[in-house]
Amino acid sequence: MVDRSKLKLSGIQYATPEIKSCYIGPEISDEQFIPEHIFFFLAKGFVEGYDGHKKYAMHSGDYCLLRKNNLARYAKQKENDQFEKVVVVFDEPFLKDFQKKHAFKTGARYAEGTFVFFEKTDLIPNFIRSLVPYYQRDGQIDDRFRDVKREELLLILLQLDSGLANILFDFSIPQKIDLKAFMLQHYRFNVSLERLAFLTGRSLSTFKREFVQLFKDTPGHWIQQKRLQEAHFQIQQKKRKPTEVYLDLGFEDLSHFSFAFKKKFGVAPSKILRKITT
């Protein structure tokens, strides 16, 4: 596994095929919770990913695996007015069938981290290029070849990093973890309390009860107040614009953020920024 959070492309250019955005596997929602393992290939553009711990930069030709049962989001930028990606979902039924067929076994525990990056190789771009003949107009791969191509990609990834077996073929649910540490790292993510409870290894009722005992507040109110405090810091101390802050902190729209901010601090976020810059 390669930690790409601090690495750049070191001047090396990797040829990327001419390819439209494509999705292979079951449909995954746009929420910031990752319910299944996802392979992500960036054909054109720039992506900055964030998992609550660190940020990861991805450029055209980069690829990674997003691990299931984690929180993550990304901000994208177009390249020459284009943004193209290939997303392959490895859902649990597919992985169980694959494991039976190929008899991959798990071993030592794999390092933590939501984004798993790989060393550069021609195998991945060549695989991406091989998808082109199977495209349909809707950007999907023909159903007759979908699982065949997923199997091919998975064999490539396991060849690049055999330790992935310990991630992909671990079908257990999240175990109970430190609630305080988890919330302080992930309060910025816009997901439901049910998701947060699941990821911390608790039922929803247990999550709520332990949360109140720990933080002396309800989860919903604590999360909003924590986000607003961080927003105030980002605007006043870091001089960031409200339009740059609200999405990063899990607010769904700017108007809701501005209303909540003014209610807490008595002044609109834009006015704080104007006072600092004038």
TrEMBL record:
Membrane spanning stretches: none
Domain of life: Bacteria
One Pfam family per UniProt: ExsA_N
Keyword Phosphoprotein: no
Keyword Transcription regulation: yes
Coiled coil segments of this chain: none
Family matches, as InterPro entries: ExsA-like_N, Homeodomain-like_sf, HTH_AraC
Domain HTH araC/xylS-type, first and last residues per copy: 177-275
Keywords: DNA-binding, Transcription, Transcription regulation
Matching PANTHER family: ARAC-FAMILY TRANSCRIPTIONAL REGULATOR, HTH-TYPE TRANSCRIPTIONAL REGULATOR EXSA
Protein name: Helix-turn-helix domain-containing protein
